[in-house]
Amino acid sequence: MSDSFVTRKSVHINLMKETHAEFRVLSFRKKMSMQSIIEGLVSKLVNGDPMLNKIIDKMAEEKKKSEFRKVTGTDAESVYDILEGLDSLKED
Question: Which segments of the chain does DSSP mark as H helices, in order?
Fold first, then answer.
């Protein structure tokens, strides 16, 4: 096999319709394919680009906060259910 042989792997992602449209416009304006932009960004990320790693770290923190809010919301619903149960006990 030659050193120039490159093995590729497919990655399938789903984007929001608006995000996809804006990304397509951006790539067109830069005269690049969407794939080349994603491949370049991921390559820099896995090679330790500090700016991209900082962005990913921020995204991870935002996701943790979002998941915490979801749990908190669910917990709040459970508390309300318990309180409703207690109120009905008082009426008896």
Answer: 17-29, 34-46, 50-91
Cα–Cα distance, 54 to 50 (Å, whole number): 6
CB proximity list for 27: less than 8 A, separation 6 or greater: 33, 34, 36, 37
Residue 45 contacts residue 38 (beta carbons within 8 Å): no
- Coil/strand/helix, residue 2: coil
For the chain, the first-to-last Cα distance in angstroms comes to 82
Residues 10-18, mean pLDDT to the nearest whole number: 91
Tell me if 34 sits within 8 A of 24, measured CB to CB.
yes
Q: What is the mean pLDDT of residues 63-86?
A: 69
Give the pLDDT confidence of 55-64 residue by residue, as tens digits: 999 999 988 8
Q: 64 with 71: CB under 8 angstroms?
A: no
